Amino acid sequence: MERPQRHASSHEAHEAHESERRPATADTALELLVHGVGGTTPQEMLNDPRTVRITGDDTAAVFRRADDVEAEKKAAKRLDEDPGKPVPEAYVWCNLTSGNGSRALWLLLLPFMVVNLAHWMRPTVRDNRVRTVRLYGLLVRLAGLTLTVLLVAAACEVALDLAAWQCAGTGGCAQEHSWLGFLSPAGPDAGWWSLPGRRLALAALVPAALTVLLWYLSHRTWSAYESQPPIEYGPESDDEPGRAGLGRPGFWYGRRLVARLRAAHTAAGLLTIVAAVGTSAARYDREPGGPPVLEALGRIVEATLVVGGVVVVWVVCRRGRSEHRLDRHLDAALVRWLPIGSLVLLALTLLYAGWSRPGWRSEGRLPGGDAIFGGIALVQCLLVIVLGVVAHLLYRAHPDPRTAMRGLAGPAVAMLACALGGVMSGGVAQRVADWLDGTGGTIEGPPVLLTWQASVIPPLLIVLLALVGWLARRTVQLRRIETAAVELDYDDEPADTGRTRRIARMRAMAALTDRAPRIIGITSIVTLLLGALALMGAMTTDETPGEAAHGTYPVVQGAAEAAQALGSWLIGVGFILFVTWGRRAYKDPSARRTIGILWDVGTFWPRAAHPFAPPCYAERAVPDLTWRMATWTGAAEGRRLVLSGHSQGSVLAAAAAWQLKPSVRKRVALLTYGSPLERLYGRWFPAHFGPDALSGLHREVDCWRNLHRATDPIGGPVRLPGDCGPKVDREALKDPLAYGRTEDHPLPAPILGHSDYQADPAFAEERRKLLARLRPEVPGPREDSGPEESQEESRLEPTPM
Fold it and tell me: What is the pTM of this model?
């Protein structure tokens, strides 16, 4: 009994000496909380109605409870009262994605966001595949360029072809819409604007305004997001071997690339308008009997248009992302003069088209519309096919069975982006044509290709319904399996059939997330095949599907006509619903938050393929978190930090930890819960969140624990290979906490699923273990310490978990 007493007294003396030698802030612990999708308030995160913003602005900020504002000065007292609990801080970033009502307009940029995701979905590669990786990025950037051209071409179709050319040039349609009367060549209001070239020049202001608006939105968000410089370190981090992609100095600073792409896409949009207006006038001027001067001007316009198109493609192909260094250079001349030059060419083209041509009449559809939309569709199909070949080569070089769709997720998502662009462009054209035409049949309507594309929507919906039926059947099967598992998990509780079924159903529905690759893969393949069939049908005939099937079997003709009518109706209704949802989100904060969830998932990645995509909030959030962690750990020696991320917040936390220099990263503990790091990001973005990247993160931080539930449809285990997996993943938490009524839970415990992980006692337990692991080690024995005391004190040092 004497030896333990002597040991305790020596330990107390040693601790007293250390408390006098170390500053009061040396053992202060901080828990930096990062919320997930959908956003929240600092009051909810900190569980306190009184919170104070300690740093940041109205967009993103760090909050503390009012009682913890000066927690560092009260560190000694806090440790005496509750030594296992850190000071909580909440980083609130939800306003980066779902802030004011104007964010609802980002719905119109959905195809751009989706194609940007395809850039980051490439498979994991080795260093000897640099050229193949560059080719992959180049193909995605070209696909993004076609989407910009498609959007502006759709605006030209509506304003130039349907309104100015067809409706204003037809007496019956112009009479139905009096606001077009001054453009009509027939009627008492016919005047200076009634000539076809002048009508086209005036209508061209609509797509030009759309292009300028896209440039403005991209420039404004570029100034707010891409202009946030990340923290810079010295050679310690620059020379770090085997650095993960998200940890590279320039990964979250894409200012130069976005500026270049913005200039190129703006010029591409303006050149598309030049093509729609200038080639129409030049085609008429080449007819026999036309003025030689106008014919020469038309050829100059067409030649300049070709040169401008080549320059735009060269700018898009010339340069990709520069991640290995912080590139602060900006191609000022290119960024400034390429859009200005295109705008000047557009102005000159409008003057050329507005020249008096008394014999020019507008009949039928505007020439060139079928060629433009057909060419875009053909190029998109070819790009997706080649992209699939490149992705397959990359995956075959370094296969991973957990990678979604065997590395073909990027091409599949790029195909869906092109399909979304086609649906939106076709939807607005069909809807405007129906509105202008009414029931009179006075105009011919949009190009034939858009009608063919609308006709393939009903077969695609049948495939989607079949997939939904398969998911429902699979859910029933999984529920039966999970019922037995629930009974085993709660075998010591009285059986409750209804309760067991509810838990089993939640688990079965949560497991459906892992079926997403198959759903997206089948949908993209069917979309590609049907799109190719629609393109072939439009290229081989100038007739609509119903007209092309005329004279065949009555069943075939009836099916074609039904598909055409139903598809046109569905595409129009879909566009109306799309606009209605955006309008509702503009006025309704709850609907705006739902849209914000889409952006939380879709805009995590920087704009690498399309500059008009919604901005990357991580280019603001990751530097914020990195700066906060670096300043906290560097303010005093021995400060401990637990980076606590829920759902999408865990992805931000991992990205921020990668950005720290190694010496700081080793002083940070990572606690993730409800995390999609492996289940979603690891499978869909293997190049940056694959097994190699996550295993490296586990080695580089001091310690990492991950919590998950079987009822969580988003979060899951990290699944690190080898013996690292059990060190990071805790076994699945029980959900609900209590099966029936107990003394601790007298009321029925809810099934939490993806939310409220802090309610589980395991959360506080794992956080306490992480803090104990981070506790500064007790210094070595003093010079007057005997060998026996030195041996006993060394036994008190904390050991790794």
Answer: 0.87
